[in-house]
Specification:
There is one protein chain. By secondary structure, the protein is of the alpha+beta class. The protein has one domain. It is elongated. The chain starts with a helix and ends in a 10-residue tail after the last strand.
Length: 77
């Protein structure tokens, strides 16, 4: 289904139906974003990747991922 077709269908709905649809979509987006550890506003991943050397000569690199609570792009908590 094309976005233009969906948009046209939404435009013919009355205001109460549009509000109900928006609430349903907001809940679905929030739940899915939380499952994927992403921001529900902009979709940015809420993980910081840290790399550091664990050997004196730099031959071994350790990569660690940390979950963050604030979106680095939009600032959503």
């Amino acid at each position: 289904m094309k976005f233009d077709d969906v948009y046209d269908e939404i435009n013919v709905m009355d205001l109460d139906d549009k509000i109900r649809l928006r609430k349903m979509l907001d809940e679905d987006i929030y739940d899915e974003a939380k499952r994927e550890n992403r921001c529900p506003i902009c979709g940015e991943h809420l993980i910081i990747t840290a790399q550091h050397n664990t050997s004196p000569y730099g031959s071994t690199v350790t990569v660690e991922e940390y979950d963050i609570g604030i979106c680095p792009s939009c600032g959503e908590v």
